[in-house]
From TrEMBL:
The lineage of its organism: Archaea, Thermoproteota, Thermoprotei, Desulfurococcales, Desulfurococcaceae. This is cytidine deaminase. GO terms for biological process: nucleobase-containing small molecule metabolic process; pyrimidine-containing compound metabolic process. The keyword Hydrolase applies. It comes from Thermogladius calderae (strain DSM 22663 / VKM B-2946 / 1633). The keyword Zinc applies. Its cofactor is Zn(2+). Substrate binds at N40, V41, E42, N43, S44, S45, Y46. InterPro entries: APOBEC/CMP_deaminase_Zn-bd (IPR016192), CMP_dCMP_dom (IPR002125), Cyt/Deoxycyt_deaminase (IPR050202), Cyt_deam_tetra (IPR006262), Cytidine_deaminase-like (IPR016193). This enzyme scavenges exogenous and endogenous cytidine and 2'-deoxycytidine for UMP synthesis. Residues 1-126 form the CMP/dCMP-type deaminase domain.
Length: 129
């Protein structure tokens, strides 16, 4: 998972967080071995803000892939941060068993969890496999 963390760290400087000051980057590893990156992009109308995780998942889908096996979430905060509820739901749409790697570049601390442990009952309209 070190590679996934490094891929997210590469794009962390591109994070746009002028309001919260919380910079986040994500890197998604797919079942085909490809990595897609994303950063958080804040907006003065807070509801329009997009999280790094959803940005990376969107890049994955745009490239035609649908199966993330792991996602690294990197922040400049003191502690690693987990995905928010909206991001947990979006990740679960594609793989409710994805590995979630949370890392702080400030302290070097890393926490690893399975999405199922972080989000045991995602909303589903139908079985997505």
């Amino acid at each position: 998972m070190r590679l996934l963390i490094e891929e997210a760290k590469r794009v962390l400087p591109h994070s746009y967080a002028p309001y919260s000051g919380v910079h986040v980057a994500a890197a998604v590893l797919t079942d085909k071995g490809n990595i897609y990156r994303g950063v958080n992009v804040e907006n003065s109308s807070y509801g329009l803000t997009i999280c790094a995780e959803r940005s990376a998942i969107s890049a994955m889908v745009t490239a035609g892939e649908r199966r993330p096996v792991a996602i690294a979430i990197v922040t400049d905060m003191d502690e690693p941060i987990p995905p928010c509820g909206a991001c947990r739901q979006v990740i679960a749409e594609f793989n409710s068993e994805a590995e979630v790697v949370m890392h702080s570049v400030k302290t070097g601390k890393t926490v690893v969890a399975n999405l199922r442990d972080l989000f045991p009952s995602p909303f589903k309209l139908r079985s997505t496999g």
